[in-house]
Each structure stands twice: as structure tokens, then as C-alpha cells.
Amino acid sequence: MDTYRTFFQSLPASLWVFDFSTIKRLFEESESIPRDTNLYDYLQNNQEEINRILGLVRIVDVNAHTLDLYEASSQEELEKNLEKIIPPVAVSSLIDITLALLRGESSYRTSTINHTLGGNIIHLQIQMTVPEEHREQLDRVVLLAQDITNEREMQDEMTLLSIMPQHNPDMVLIMECYNRIVYANPAVRNWLMAHEMHNLEAIHVLLPELFEQSVCRLCDKFHVKEFKSSYGEERFDIKLKPIPGQNRCLITIVDITEIDRISREREVFYKALQASRHGMVITDLDGKIEYINPKFEALYGYSLEEAKGNTPNIINPGRETYYDLGYSDEQYNNIFSDLWKSIRDPAVGYWEGVIPNRDREGNIIWVHLIIHTIYDEQGKPSGYLGMPVDISDQRKREQKIRLDIYQTITQMAEMRDNETGAHIQRVGAYAHIIADEIGMSTQFKHDLLLFAPPARHRQSRNKRQDSPGRAQTYAGGVRDHEGAYDHGLQPASGQGIHGDGGRHCLRAS
């Protein structure tokens, strides 16, 4: 007996001894359990019955290797956790063993999956044996469970490796020294057929010239050899890897025609962006900057490293500056709401407008901004391309022309005698003073200069119009930074504009 226990405990495999006698009586005495061939289906679809069977199984003994395999501390812990050890996927194996016992079979082999108490999966080869003296009662059933987890994983890996070349869209060859093809996957044959080549050896057209001399004879001298190849307009990336000890090499041929085309297009696109005479900025869909070209850097003073990850808000002068330039809050909001609405609309995907920007030093730059939505190959938006064109000088020229035209019209309207002239210019100067006092925008005050030209213009005109007996009327320009008042307008009290019964009082000098 001691020898038996020693052998039982030291065996390097999982040994179980079960008592199935209660289960045998259950099936013999129960009227609800079918006795025909439908028994398997009955158990397969009756989880309650399966749980009932598990509850009746009694473990008589297990060896030390079993406890180690299932990460259990004792036989009692195993018995309490049979439902955890035998997962639903293994129920069919349990049913097979139970039915084999009920049919009177004394030996049965199957494979199954169990779980350890730690939750790990183990693959098992099960050998069930009923000693002859216990076959009537089934009070002793021996299960030998061999852990085949490593073998099963290796088998699965080998199976995967064997089918991978068959389903690989790239061409795979195994070539034997010297220069003899011993395997070609379907992708190789499909390529040959597409090019009306019916001999497998024709695949050599993709291999480098003098392949045998330059590669085959040197295959044991390198680990992996890579090179490019072409056939007509097609481009290929080829890799050769020697198979150790077999005088063979594995060759993979990848069609990179499309990748090569896209790469060349991107290179052309990048060079075009870099060489553009206008600023270019690319953002993601959230507006975060991914790229700016050198012209953008020169225009705004930000380097790519500084701008990347930020949004174009870094060049937005802000609401207050827009107000100073004559935009209302509503206009400011409408500009950007219309911008985002347009570029996010698949039917539009475009916005264009003239807006002020700000460079890194805080200077205002007027730009003609064009934004295009960028779409990927599936037609989904992937980002935005902005093209700001600096029109600051053009805007200054246009403003000067507009100013000169209106000042000329104003001066023509004022070409009367000097005693009653300069009415429009006086009104312009007066309006400029009031606008400054009540905080009107810089642009609004600047526009008033259309009616109040700088003093040097009027003084030159006065010199031309001066004549004996006529007093000079034009005394200066608009209000300067020290608070001086021109155009012959003087504060009524000598203290500047002030309230008098709700009115601002001025008098003519």
C-alpha cells in the first residue's frame, strides 16, 4: 500500500480518483432522464442537470501534481470548485465521459479544456479507466489528465504558420539552393496568371539579375537581404531570409506600387508647400496645427516647433482688436461661425474672406484667407489647409486712394470764401473729438479723417487761397495726443469738452 501511495503521489501527471456511484444510481432510478440516444442532447441542453451531476461527483483522491496543476491548496478546495474548473466549453467532454461510464465502457479517451483556480486555461488529454472490481458500482473511476497546453499552443502556432502563406496577399516563395523553387503560395501563381506567365520559374523576372551568383551562393553570409525590383510600372519590395540548416531561403515579394506612388505624390506636395510664395498651414479636424511652411513662419514669426500643437488662435488678434478695427461683436462672431460651418459642411468644404491677423510681435497683418477641407481616400474629412495671403500693403494703398478721393471731394465742397468755408471739415474734427471721448473704435475715428484732413494738406491749400483782406480760416488738424483742438474749434470754457445741462459746448475761434 505504501508503494502504491508513493507511486500515486510522485507520478508527474495529474491523477484523479472519482466515485461515480451516486450518479449511476441517479440515472438508473430517475424517470425524467431519457434512456435512449437522446440522452446526450438532453444533457447538452440542460445546464441544471449538468450542475446536479457535478454536485454529485465525489473526489476520492488526487495526487500532488494535480494540486500543483490546478493551483489548489487541497483536495477539498478542488471539490468545492468543480464548476469553476470545468468551464461551459468543456461540458461536452464531461457528458462524453459520463455516457461512456453508463454504457459500461471501462476505458475512454478524450481531450478537453479546464481552468485552474487562478483562471489560467490548461489543455488536457484525458484517459479514463475503471478498475475491473469497480465496474459494477462505478465507485472508483481513475482519470489520468496529461497537461498538453504547450504542445497544443505549438500545434496551433504551426497550423497558423502553415495557413498564413496560403492566405497571404503578398507573394511568398521558398527557394532551394541553387535557384530551384520548392514552394509558391497562391499569390505568386495569381500574379503570374495575370501577366500571362504559366511557368512558375517565370517569377525570376522579379528577382535581381545574376540571382544565383549574387544571392544564392551567399545566402549563408547574411541574415536578411532586401532589395527593390520593378516590372513595367509595378514596384516591389523583396526580402530574402535564409532558413537555417536547410539550404533554402524564404522570399517575400510585396507590391509597393501604390505605396510608391503615394510617397512620390507626398514628396511633390511637400516640396510644393515648402516652395510656395504664400503661407500654408495644415491642421487636424480640431484645428490643431500639424504643419506650417517657411512662408508662414516668415509671415507670422512662429517656427514649426512653436506652432505645432497650437490652434490658429495664436494669430487671432482677438475680439477687442476686431472692435478697434470697426467690427461689431455680432460681425466678429459671424465670421468664425460661418468659417467653421462652411469647412465642416461636406457640400461646401471651403471658406474665403479678408480678416486681420497678428504676428508674434503683435503687429496686425491683413490677410486674404482661403481654407480648404482635406479629405482622405474614403472621402472623409481628415484636416484643413489654410492659405493666408498678406494683403496689408494692398489694403494700405487702397485706403490711401479712398482717403485721397474723399478728401478731394470734401475740399471741392468747401471751395467757398474763407469766411464761411471749412464747414464739413469742422464737423469732421468735432465728430472726431466726440468719438475719442466716448471710446469709439480706432477704425471709426480713422474714418472721420475723410472729413478732417491732416493739417499739412489744408495749410498748403490755405497758402494757395490766401489773398489780401481775407483772414486765414484753417488753423490746424484734428485733435493731437496732448489734447489740442484744431480747425478753429476751442473749448467754450477753456477746459475742453464739458457738460453744460447735458450739452457739450464749443465755440469757434
Q: Could you describe the 3D structure shown?
A:
The structure is a single chain. The protein has 509 residues and is of the alpha+beta class. The protein folds into four domains: 2-153, 2-Layer Sandwich (Beta-Lactamase), CATH 3.30.450.20; 168-259, PAS domain (Beta-Lactamase), CATH 3.30.450.20; 277-390, Beta-Lactamase; 396-508, no CATH class. The protein has helices at residues 2-10, 21-29, 39-44, 47-56, 64-69, 75-80, 82-85, 91-102, 149-167, 186-194, 211-214, 257-275, 294-300, 304-307, 319-324, 329-344, 392-413, 423-437, 442-447, 455-465, and strands at 14-19, 58-62, 107-115, 121-129, 141-147, 171-176, 180-184, 225-231, 234-243, 248-255, 281-283, 289-292, 350-358, 364-375, 381-390, 489-491, 499-500, 503-504, 506-508. The protein has a five-stranded antiparallel β-sheet with strand order 2-1-5-4-3. Strand 17 (499-500) and strand 18 form a beta hairpin. The protein is elongated and about 135 Å long. The relative contact order is 0.05. Mean pLDDT is 80; it is low at 455-509.
Look at the structure and give the mean pLDDT. 80
The CATH homology group name of the largest domain: PAS domain
Any idea of the CATH class of the largest domain? Answer: Alpha Beta
- In angstroms, what separates the terminal alpha carbons? 135 Å
For the largest beta-sheet, the strand count, sense and barrel status come to: 5 strands, antiparallel
Number of strands: 19
Helix content: 25-40%
Low-pLDDT stretches are: 455-509
Please name the CATH architecture of the largest domain. 2-Layer Sandwich
Radius of gyration: 47 Å
Strand content: 15-25%
Strand arrangement, major sheet: 2-1-5-4-3
Structural class computed from helices and strand pairing: alpha+beta
CATH topology of the largest domain: Beta-Lactamase
The total count of helices amounts to: 20
The general outline is: elongated
